[in-house]
Amino acid sequence: MLFNSVQFFLFLPLVWALYFLLPHRFRWIWLLGSSYFFYGYWKYQFVFLMAFTSLVDWYCARQIVANTSQRMRKRFLWFSIISNLSILFFFKYFNFFFGHSPLARWLYNTEAMAWAVELARYTIPAGISFYTFQSISYVVDVYRGNDSAERSLPRFMLFVAFFPQLVAGPIERFSHLQRQLFSRNNIHYENLSAGFRLMLYGLFLKVCVADNLAASADQFYGAHKLYNNGSAWLAALAFCFQVYADFFGYSLMAQGSAKLFGIDLMDNFLKPFLARNVPEFWQRWHISLSTWFRDYIYFPLGGSRQGKTRMLGNVMVVFLVSGLWHGANWTMILFGAAQGVLYWFDHFLFGKAPARKDAIAWLHRAKTVFFFLLTLVFFRSMSLKQSTEVYGMLAGMPSGDAQLQIPAVTWAMLCAFILLDLFITRDRFDRWIGKYPAALRWTVYSVFMLSIWMFGGTVNHPFVYFQF
Fold this sequence. Notes:
This protein is mostly helical. The chain has helices at 6-21, 24-40, 45-66, 70-98, 102-109, 111-122, 128-144, 153-161, 174-181, 189-222, 229-260, 278-284, 287-298, 308-326, 330-349, 359-380, 384-394, 408-424, 429-433, 438-455.
């Protein structure tokens, strides 16, 4: 169920109304059932997969707490990690590594596995990377002693399946989300107001900015050989801001949906295009995933504690895994590798540069966005061949004659977003707009709603990160 669909805007008010009509002790049960309906609305078979993941990790965490033997604790930890990654590998990466192998043919001819192989060949369970990582972090934190194990399986299932952040994050930690899910939340005007603002702004970013840019980017990447070199640069710019507005918009709508229930989700973006270098960029972009990689891969590998060479290797491992997390193809792996190289570059050249507030600082910001824009060619391309050809076009190699036309309304929506994000709002949108008088607030709301109605993308594009 897409956040920008009619079905969701019928689903959400119903869930919210019944949630607050029910006695407190039954609310979480209603929320659990609603979350599973939300996920199963797309493809009900994958509901059982998510439930199985929850069962395994709940049981392993309970056994980690129950056992005093370090060997047994470690066994249950690794059983949880391996079972999670095995499911993720099968549905997301099996076809990439073994798609035409004898093993794949044997599994397909096995009656018990044929349905799963067929599903994995044509589709990936929505959000499997997100809820898998969230569930793994819980087991690891229990093993480390950072969290206590949840006694109730259904309550743990709600932590994994909470619908606002289920499909594309943010990837929440157990200690932050679980206590909120079972608090005695009441209806507060402040929560409703903040939730409305976040959802409205997020929807504006999605349908007015991202979807309009997507139309232009899709047009170019659908027949890139027909276009000239300038069109390649326009398409790269369009996709850069498309993916930002799309995922930022989703994250705001997730936060807004949760806020209606009195639940705060973590911020996933903190104005990443204001970052002065690549390390800072990844502290501001997709924060829940970046901190997950930091806490559960980078630090266990040794972080920066074992010298520069080891640190460089650890950084590259993290970015290669991040690239593979984004997709089972070589373009995504190269996207991760490129980010790792840029991280090294900025870390050594600009990592210790003093913070500045002048034109030089803006040049650093422009440099960071420019290199990110270039690496996104890997992210968007459908094959290595296409990415190579597009990079050739960007470098000025001979190309077609057609000119990519980006409509004026798309430019207007993009400029409005850039002005708001980089120059006007210095805080999260709901807090920033809340500081102004009601007349001004409702003028802004009206502009957003009118824009959504009049200029929303003609095609209802799925959220970019739903595929992960």
